[in-house]
Structure formats: C-alpha cells, structure tokens
C-alpha cells in the first residue's frame, strides 16, 4: 500500500538514496532540503508523487510548515524520517562555541522540531512511524566529534522516551544507527578545525586515519535505504537498528566494555542506598524501568 513519507535532508547521501527508494517503491514523498532546488530532479522524474520543500530543521515554524505540506498535498502522513545532519571536527576545547551549538541545533533540536510537528497528525491518525537516523556514534565516542555524537546520544534518549509515550497511540519509533557510509558526510559536508599539538595524538590521529583509509566507510547508502524501507513495512519494527558490519562489531565492543566496568564497580555502586531497604529489583518501580517501548 502506498504511504506518505517525509524525509529531511533529501538532497544527498543517505537521504537522497532513501528518497529515490521510497519513490521507486510507489510511495508519495515530501522531500526537504535547505536548498529545494537540489530536489528538482526528483520532481522532474516523479511529478505529483513528490513535493520539494525548503527546510532548516532548526526552525520549529519551518518544520511545522513542511509537515503541513504532507497533509495538504496527500491528505495524511505515514512515515517521518529525521535524516538531516552534519558534523564538524575539532577538540572540545578548541571548537568554536557557535559551531558546537549549531551542530546540536541541527542534529538534535532539528529532530525534536520535526518530531513535535508531526506528532499531532500521527496521533490523530492513531498510526505512523518516526524513524530517526542516528549513528553508531550514538552508542560510542570518537575524538573530535563531541558535538555531533552528543547530539546523537540525545536523539537516542529522546526517541526511547518518545516510544514509551506514543506506543499506545499506534505510533512506532525506530532509531537507525549506521556505521560508516560512503557519502559526503565525512567529505565536503565536514569541516575540520585547527587542531593544536596536544590533541594531535587523539583528534589529529582520527582525522589522519580517515583520510588515509577511505575504505573504512563500508556502508552502501543504497542498501541502507532498502533496509530502512523494509523496517518501515514491519508491523513490529525495532526500537534500535544497527546498519553495517562495523556498527554491529563496535556495538558489541561498547556493550562489553561498559558491562565489565559496571561489574568492576558494582559493590561501590550498591553501597549508597539507605540501610534496610529491599533490593530495587523487587520494588514495584523496577517494572517501570524496563528498557524498550514500554
């Protein structure tokens, strides 16, 4: 059955591949980009099944206007994909404050803005799917990417809370966490600041390794787009979806390291409750803490 999609950041990279896949599958699409003229080839090929909309996701009013295009043009909205984002590289100490805040505004608050704009429509329909394009960097950390990865961690937490709030309303939420993909995310879209000598062994080494090893980006954005298309058709989609062998491998290492550290300090962690209390695991509140959709 044909669905109505809205995809932010549709002009290039994964967003472009997903837009093409959605339209090729017969769906209708509101494609957004900062420069809507970059979307005209989609309009030329698919005509009335696509609307090209200019959108800066950091602007809440613009997000509401983009969502309104879906209902005015197609009468409903089924799938919202928050894909727009970018990263610049520098140490936490050296990154300009305005740059740090701008990355958070786009990569996190942009997701919040578009999600909040779509919720009244999806809630009224009692169905819909919100897909957040995050990163394996939303589970781990990389020197030089503090602003970007902080935003992705925030997207994960925001989306898990969202899933618990709207699951009973028929709205599904999926956080997609790809590994490295061969797009211009780490190319022309990424700027690297001046890295001072004390950070050359960490931030500088990361930048050099990426430049010297372009094959580290293993993910095929066209295949990732097809995976997202499949997940959007599932009745019970995952809350979190890793994409790419690197993402799967790194996620396992991250989880293992965190579990080992938690176990090492378990006794100290357990020592801070008031005396005489039953274990938390036996309390009624423990049931509310269950991870997942709730």
UniProtKB/TrEMBL annotation:
Q: Which residues form the Ketoreductase domain?
A: 3-188
Give the matching Pfam families. Answer: adh_short (PF00106)
- Does this UniProt record's set of keywords contain Oxidoreductase? yes
Q: Which SMART domains match?
A: PKS_KR
Keywords for this protein: Oxidoreductase
Q: Which SUPFAM superfamilies does the annotation name?
A: NAD(P)-binding Rossmann-fold domains
At the top level, the lineage of the source is: Bacteria
Which terms does the record give in the GO molecular function aspect?
oxidoreductase activity
Oxidoreductase among the record's keywords?
Answer: yes
UniProt family annotation: Belongs to the short-chain dehydrogenases/reductases (SDR) family.
Which PANTHER family did the record assign? Answer: SHORT CHAIN DEHYDROGENASE, SHORT-CHAIN DEHYDROGENASE_REDUCTASE FAMILY PROTEIN
NCBIfam families for the chain: PRK06180.1, PRK08263.1
What's this protein's name? Answer: Short-chain dehydrogenase/reductase SDR
Q: What species is this protein from?
A: Stigmatella aurantiaca (strain DW4/3-1)
